[in-house]
Amino acid sequence: MTDAPPLPSPPAVSLLSEWFVARRGLANGVVFAGTAIGGLIIPFLLEFLLSRYGAPITLRALVSPELALADDPAVFVESPG
């Protein structure tokens, strides 16, 4: 594992500057706090799931919410205004 901090994906960061003008700082704070919390939780969750269910089930369990919640709605995002 690396010592690099978790970072949000570039599309998420670029959409922030388009959608949030007046409260851009708050939006950035929420996104970066979310990635930091994920960076704290995912390693412990990964260790637990790997020891209990093995690699194939663990990878499916970690990827499924990502695909359902993050990637699919991004297809439908349009530019504001």
What is the fold's blueprint, element by element?
Elements: H1 10-19, H2 24-53, H3 55-74
Explain what this protein looks like in three dimensions.
With 81 residues, the protein is mostly helical. The chain has one domain (10-74). 74% of the residues lie in helices and 0% in strands. The chain contains three helices and no strands. It has helices at 10-19, 24-53, 55-74. Helix 1 (10-19) runs antiparallel to helix 2. The model has no long low-confidence stretch (mean pLDDT 78).
Query: Residue share in helices?
Result: over 70%
Shape annotation: elongated
Helix-strand category: mainly alpha
Radius of gyration: 15 Å
Strand content: under 5%
Count of DSSP H/I helices: 3
Cα separation of the termini? 42 Å
Poorly predicted parts? none
How many separate domains make up the residues?
Answer: 1
Overall number of strands: 0
The main pleated sheet reads as: none
Mean pLDDT: 78
Q: Tags for this entry?
A:
74% helix, 0% strand, 81 residues, mainly alpha
